[in-house]
Amino acid sequence: MKTAIGVFVTLFSLASVATATSILTGLSITSDFQATGVGVYAGPVVSTAPATISPYPGINSNGTFSVTYTDSTITLLSAGGSTLFSPGFAFNGIVFDLPASFTFSSATIDGATTLSGFVAGDLSFAANVLQVNLDALTFNSGNQLVLDVNGSTTSATPEPGTLALGAGGMILVGFLRRLRRA
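The structure assignment produced for this chain is given below.
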């Protein structure tokens, strides 16, 4: 009996480690552009990753400004024209709001970034919110800001594979108990 329980616990532990989880894929992301003292001035736009929002409504009348989500990156791109983010604000940029079950563990500037002047101090995250401060920066045609993100989602319900393994383990324990009594 103790052996059967030990085998069940070992299998259950291995199944938990083996399941791969995506970072952004399938998550609903709300984004909007905000400025301190002004509030929201473009958006909000709700999208499920992976996706591209192009053009981003209300941001660039001179061309196309887009936001693209992959599983582990967020890319801001100016495909035409020029977009100046007015200077003098404590914060003037985009806020990405993910579901409350998501928690960011890191957000860094990718080497593919071509937006001049954007530095690590312009990027901040707390729990499920990522803020990108673009105050006084200009996106010219072709400039992009690529962010590598990492995080995890907590789930109140177990995955189907975990439930199946648990049920299989309980059946095995019951079967072994029955054999032992016979």
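Interim note for the steering committee: Confidence is low (pLDDT under 50) at residues 7-20. Residues 93 and 133 are 5 Å apart (CA to CA).
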